[in-house]
Amino acid sequence: MKKIAINYIFNQTLGRQNHVRVIRLSAPKAIYNFSNKEDILNGLNEKDYQRYCSQFMNELGDVLEESPSQRISDVQISDGVIKVTTQGEKTFVINRQVPNRQIWYSSPVSGPQRFNWDLQEAKWKNQKNEELSKLLFKEIDQV
Fold first, then answer.
1. In sequence order, what are the beta bridge partners of 104?
2. Which of the residues 20, 25, 126, 132 has the least number of beta carbons within 10 Å of its own beta carbon?
């Protein structure tokens, strides 16, 4: 199993300590040998997309719900959609896009973005090569 990590930093300071939490997800190394090229979209077949996406969304939802960050006021998780509301009433939305085999992200800071599974690094990345979880937590700290 190849280890992938969601790294994020909450810039909440308790006393003089900054808290950093690292979460490790396990994902098997992706090796594909398909005779039907139409089974592959954005480098993934549907079964692998469902597995990687579900694992990522479940872990991200758990992390957000347990977050010590005082910037997050509400986290709603339903049918493959994670909605995060901040104290300033800003809303971030992360949702599955099964037909495209992507995760879509809507942010009041950077706007809408699409994330594809990076087979080499085993992470969800956008066109700017930014990792989804890192971008989310960075932008939560900005609002």
1. 95, 114
2. 20
| Cβ-Cβ contacts under 8 Å for 109 (sequence gap 6 or more) | 90, 139, 142, 143
Residue 12 to residues 22, 54, 70, Cα–Cα distance (Å): 15, 28, 7
**Spatial separation of the C-alpha atoms in residues 61 and 3, rounded to whole Å:** 19
Q: Which two tokens stand for residue 16?
A: 């003089």
| H helix intervals, 7-120 | 46-65
Q: Report percent pLDDT > 90 for the chain.
A: 62
* Distance separating alpha carbons of residues 89 and 31, to the nearest angstrom: 43
Domain coverage including residue 48? 2-142
Domain CATH for 118: 3.30.920.10
Residue 97 CA to residue 121 CA, distance in Å, equals 21
Number of domains in the chain: 1
**CA-based radius of gyration for the chain:** 16
Q: What is the DSSP letter of 30?
A: P
pLDDT, mean of residues 24-52: 64
3-class DSSP state of 1: coil
> What are residue 97's phi and psi, to 5 degrees?
-130, 85
